[in-house]
Amino acid sequence: MITPNILLVEDSDFMSMRVVEVLEATHGMSLTAVKTAEEARTRIETGDFDVVVVNYELPDETGIELADSLNAGDEPPEIPVILLTGRELEPIAKKASEKGVTEFVYKGDHAAADMDVLANRIKVVVDAYVDTD
């Protein structure tokens, strides 16, 4: 498997630092972190990312709105987006899927855990959508 190049869009410094630290050290992934959807779009234009992991709530818009602007209904998605949220998933899942979100991960207590669920979702999405040829 390739080492996934991940763009993390998370406005919480603590959560961002924790996700980057654990996914890089424990799961061998490469992450770039930004705080806003606007920063994410700029990085995507200039970088080569395999997947975007985005918090639901951002200072300038929601993660769903960012996914919609990146993928605009493309199937397969231009860039896979994993929504990382502390919100209950059921009420937002259908709309998020329609707007370009590829996968969901509930934050729950991930800040104190080894983030196996998030790492697994990233690997599954990369295997499914990233051309490694």
UniProtKB/TrEMBL annotation:
Keyword match Hydrolase: no
The protein, known as: Response regulator
Species this chain originates from: Halonotius terrestris
SUPFAM superfamilies: CheY-like
Domain Response regulatory intervals: 5-122
GO BP term, pick one: phosphorelay signal transduction system
Keywords linked to the UniProt accession: Phosphoprotein, Two-component regulatory system
KW Phosphoprotein (keyword) present: yes
Chain ranges passing through the membrane: none
PANTHER family: PROTEIN PILG (PTHR44591:SF14), STRESS RESPONSE REGULATOR PROTEIN 1 (PTHR44591)
Origin superkingdom: Archaea
